[in-house]
């Protein structure tokens, strides 16, 4: 049904609108997650990290567990993520906690700031196997 009939209940109207929005978001969710995580890896200006983290949090919370895991895993296979497998697994732990409601959006904001900073570095310390990456893994990689 594409339009609302006169006299139709507000609840029904909201449900129909919600279904359309959910369907639209489901189609673009993987690309959004991909772009947001690339942004956290240094492709966004620092000023947009908190809003981007908040948006990712909402996307994860409103996804099915399968959708959230699939989108996050695919996004972290990008070449822009340069911190290695241990950091990738640690980030997936945080994203999973966020999707389940066991971490809040401020946690993602902290993670994004750290990711962004790590991807700004030019020395080996900030890439896979470096001390800064090991600290990231220790801080966020606990299930």
How would you characterize this protein structure?
It is a single chain. The longest helix is centred in the N-terminal third of the chain and has 34 residues. This protein has 143 residues and is mainly α. It contains 6 helices and no strands. α4 packs antiparallel against α5.
Characteristic key phrases:
single chain, 6 helices
Q: Which H/E pattern describes the elements?
A: HHHHHH
How many individual helices? 6
What Rg do the Cα atoms give?
Answer: 18 Å
Number of strands: 0
Task: Write a brief caption for the model.
With 143 residues, the chain is mainly α. It has helices at residues 10-43, 49-61, 65-75, 84-100, 105-120, 131-140.
Fold blueprint:
Blueprint: H1 10-43, H2 49-61, H3 65-75, H4 84-100, H5 105-120, H6 131-140
Helix pairs in contact: 1-2, 1-3, 1-5, 2-4, 2-5, 3-4, 4-5, 4-6
């Amino acid at each position: 049904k594409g339009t609302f009939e006169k006299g139709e209940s507000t609840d029904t109207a909201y449900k129909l609108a919600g279904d359309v929005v959910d369907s639209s978001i489901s189609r673009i969710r993987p690309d959004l997650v991909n772009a947001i995580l690339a942004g956290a890896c240094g492709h966004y200006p620092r000023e947009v990290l908190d809003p981007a983290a908040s948006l990712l949090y909402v996307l994860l919370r409103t996804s099915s567990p399968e959708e959230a895991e699939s989108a996050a895993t695919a996004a972290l296979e990008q070449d822009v993520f340069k911190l290695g497998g241990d950091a990738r697994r640690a980030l997936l732990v945080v994203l999973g906690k966020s999707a389940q409601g066991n971490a809040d959006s401020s946690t993602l904001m902290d993670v994004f700031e750290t990711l962004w900073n790590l991807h700004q570095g030019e020395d080996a310390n900030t890439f896979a196997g470096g001390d800064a990456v090991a600290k990231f893994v220790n801080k966020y990689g606990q299930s």
